[in-house]
Design goal:
Blueprint (H helix, E strand, L loop, with lengths): L1 H10 L1 H18 L1 H5 L5 H13 L9 H17 L10 H12 L2 H22 L4 H85 L1 H28 L19 H6 L5 E6 L7 H21 L6 E7 L3 E8 L14 H11 L3 E6 L5 E8 L3
Parallel strand pairs: 1-2
Antiparallel strand pairs: 2-3, 3-5, 4-5
Length: 382
C-alpha cells in the first residue's frame, strides 16, 4: 500500500504539495478575522501578505533555495513594517524543511541559521525575550531542520540502492549477453566440425563411388552405404546441437551424448581415409569436455587431410598417455606446404580454442619432406 502511495505521489507532485499545504492555508483563512482586528494592514493586506508567503511554496520542490529566500525576505520586510506574526509565517519553516531535504548540507545549515536569526528578531520585537523562550523556539526549528536532513539522507540512500540495483541488473544482462555469445561461438565451432568433416567424407566417398560404379560395383555400393551412414550421423549431430537451443521444446533434456574417446575409433574408420590409430601408455579417465576436445581435434585434422592432402593421402593418429599429459599427434603424407590455403577456414583456430580451454597447446604445421602434422598436449591430472 505504501509503495502504491509513494508511486502515486511521484506521478502527481503538484497535487501532493497542495495537499500538504492545505492545512496551513485553511488555518490562515480561519484566523483571518481575529488577526486583522489586531493588525494595521486590514483584511485585504492580511490576505495579500498570506498569499505572498504561501504561493511560492508551490514551487519549493523545484527551486527550494529561491523559495526560502523569497519567504524569508517577505517575513523580514514584515518585521520592518512592525506587522504582527500570523500563521502564514510558518512558510519559513516549511521552506527550511524543503531546503534541508533537497539541498546540500551547507545550504541547509545556512537556512537554519537564517531561521534562527528570524526567531531572534521576532522575539525582540513581538515578545519578551528570555532564554527559555528562545531555547524552546530553537529546539522547534532545529527539530524541523534535523527531520529534513534525515529525509535527505534517506532519500540519497534509496537513490544509491536504486542505482546499485540498476547497475547490478545491467551487469547481469551483460553477463547473460556474454554467455549467449560464448554459447553461440561454441555451437558455431561444433557445427563447423560436424559439417566440414562429414561433408568432406561424403564428397570423398561419392567420388570413389563414381569411379568404381562401372569397374567395381561392390566397392561403389560400400561407398554409397558409407555416404548414407555419414549423412545420418551428421544430421543426428546437427539436430542435437540445434536442439540445445530449444529449451522449451518437448524432450529438451533427451539428447545424444557428446562424442568422446570411446567414439574415436569409429571416427577414424569412418573418415573416408586410410587411417591407422595407435594408443600407447595407460589410458586415463578424462573429463567429458576434454574428451570432446580431443575428438574434435582429431576430426578437424582428418578433415583437413581429406580437403588438402590430395589423392592417396594416408593419415596416422597417435595418442600417448603420460603421467601428467596426453599427447595427440595426427600426421599425414599428403601435399603439406604445397596444399592450397582455404581463405575462410577456422578449423585450426577452433582446435586451439578447445585445447587451450583445458590448459593445453596445439601446434599445426607442414612436415619436412611432405605431409602435415597436428600436435596437441593436454594435461590429464588435476
Amino acid at each position: 500500500m505504501f509503495g502504491k502511495i509513494r508511486a502515486w505521489s511521484q506521478r502527481h507532485p503538484k497535487l501532493v504539495d497542495s495537499l500538504w499545504l492545505a492545512p496551513l492555508v485553511g488555518l490562515c483563512v480561519m484566523t483571518a478575522i481575529s488577526y486583522t482586528g489586531r493588525a494595521p494592514i486590514g483584511l485585504g493586506g492580511y490576505l495579500a501578505l498570506s498569499a505572498a508567503l504561501l504561493v511560492p511554496l508551490f514551487w519549493r520542490g523545484s527551486h527550494p533555495r529561491v523559495v526560502f529566500a523569497i519567504v524569508s525576505l517577505i517575513s523580514f520586510f514584515q518585521w520592518l513594517a512592525a506587522v504582527d506574526a500570523f500563521p502564514a509565517n510558518a512558510a519559513v519553516l516549511v521552506a527550511l524543511y524543503t531546503v534541508a531535504t533537497r539541498c546540500a548540507f551547507r545550504w541547509a545549515l545556512a537556512a537554519c541559521l537564517v531561521s534562527e536569526f528570524g526567531i531572534f528578531l521576532a522575539l525582540v520585537q513581538w515578545d519578551t525575550v528570555s532564554l527559555s523562550t528562545f531555547f524552546g523556539c530553537t529546539v522547534f526549528v532545529v527539530t524541523i531542520w534535523l527531520t529534513g536532513l534525515y529525509a535527505n539522507t534517506r532519500h540519497r540512500y534509496l537513490e544509491g540502492l536504486e542505482e546499485r540495483a540498476e547497475r547490478a541488473e545491467r551487469e547481469r544482462d551483460h553477463q547473460a549477453r556474454m554467455a549467449a555469445a560464448a554459447e553461440r561461438a561454441r555451437i558455431a565451432r561444433e557445427l563447423h566440425d560436424v559439417v566440414a568433416h562429414n561433408v568432406s567424407v561424403i564428397i570423398v566417398q561419392a567420388d570413389g563411388a563414381g569411379y568404381a560404379i562401372d569397374s567395381d560395383p561392390e566397392q561403389a555400393r560400400k561407398a554409397v552405404q558409407a555416404i548414407s551412414r555419414t549423412g545420418r550421423e551428421a544430421l543426428a549431430e546437427m539436430r542435437r546441437m540445434v536442439g540445445v537451443l530449444r529449451e522449451d521444446g518437448p524432450g529438451a533434456a533427451d539428447y545424444t551424448p557428446q562424442p568422446g574417446l570411446a567414439q574415436l575409433e569409429e571416427l577414424v574408420h569412418g573418415s573416408g581415409l586410410p587411417v591407422d590409430l595407435r594408443v600407447t601408455g595407460v589410458p586415463q579417465e578424462l573429463p567429458e569436455g576434454e574428451q570432446l576436445a580431443v575428438y574434435r581435434l582429431v576430426q578437424e585434422a582428418l578433415t583437413n587431410t581429406l580437403k588438402h592432402g590430395g589423392p592417396g593421402a594416408r593419415a596416422l593418429v597417435e595418442m600417448e598417455y603420460g603421467m601428467h599429459e596426453l599427447v595427440v599427434r595426427v600426421t599425414d603424407d599428403g601435399r603439406g606446404a604445397a596444399a592450397p590455403r582455404s581463405p575462410d577456414g577456422h578449423g585450426l583456430l577452433g582446435m586451439r580454442e578447445r585445447v587451450s580451454m583445458y590448459g593445453g597447446a596445439v601446434q599445426a604445421a607442414p612436415r619436412p619432406g611432405g605431409g602435415f602434422e597436428v600436435l596437441a598436449r593436454l594435461p590429464v591430472a588435476a
